[in-house]
Design goal:
Shape: globular
Helix content: 25-40%
Number of helices: 8
Order of helices and strands: EEEHEHHEHEEEEEEHHHEHE
Length: 232
């Protein structure tokens, strides 16, 4: 059984604790270490590893403090270069090269965002559960089978974004959102293309404060999947 706790999500910072009951991981550290500590109820020593998707501050703000506390951080070379970090506790990982952390087998995969070498993660527990984590990508080119839990971005819906453009959103910002983040419409296509038969929970992450309609998104995903949906 996978346990998922959202400590923070959205443009102000992202950080999630996941556990299969044996090994606890942190996905992203995009908030202050103080808030991470509070979110973990000060049990930071139980975290076996921290996975970072890319170098934007809302995903890595707390990394340096995590390193100072002896936590092991996993990221791509491009993310490390983008953060200008050099620390022995950083483990460089590559797309499609799986590795182990405790009872998890982690398979990084490349995603589409406006940074150096962003990654998503497929995490399979020894207990058989399989979690997909993907954020800050406008498209996922891979298909997955046997998923039991999804933690996936749904940053905006086209209807709300178009309305904001008509109301004065700068066209450059409009284009940037569409080329760097996952829309509701692309997410629904992703669901159609993947095996959803074993999915138990869908956690919709990183909703934009201004470009998303939470009620509309929740209803659309519920109609398309019939699954248990969380929007933290």
């Amino acid at each position: 059984m996978i346990e998922i706790k959202t400590i923070a999500t959205g443009s102000k910072g992202n950080c999630y604790r996941v556990s299969d009951g044996s090994t606890a991981l942190l996905l992203e550290a995009g908030i202050s270490f103080k808030v991470i500590q509070q979110g973990l109820e000060f049990k930071t020593s139980e975290i076996a590893g921290v996975l970072i998707s890319h170098e934007h501050q809302d995903h890595c703000k707390g990394v340096e403090c995590c390193l100072k506390r002896g936590m092991t951080i996993y990221m791509s070379q491009g993310t490390k270069d983008g953060m200008s970090l050099d620390n022995a506790q950083i483990r460089i990982i590559k797309s499609k090269e799986q590795f182990r952390i405790g009872t998890w087998t982690v398979l990084p995969f490349d995603v589409q965002h406006d940074v150096n070498e962003p990654l998503g993660f497929l995490l399979q527990s020894d207990n058989g559960d399989k979690l997909l984590f993907a954020t800050d990508t406008y498209y996922i080119k891979y298909k997955f089978t046997g998923l039991t839990h999804l933690m996936i971005e749904c940053n905006y819906d086209q209807q709300t974004l178009d309305s904001n453009l008509a109301s004065g959103l700068h066209p450059a910002q409009y284009r940037r959102v569409m080329k760097s983040h996952f829309s509701l419409e692309n997410l629904l296509e992703f669901f159609k293309a993947n095996d959803m038969s074993k999915v138990e929970e869908i956690h919709l992450l990183h909703l934009s404060d201004s470009n998303s309609n939470e009620t509309y998104i929740r209803q659309a995903v519920a109609r398309a999947t019939g699954k248990l949906i969380y929007i933290p």
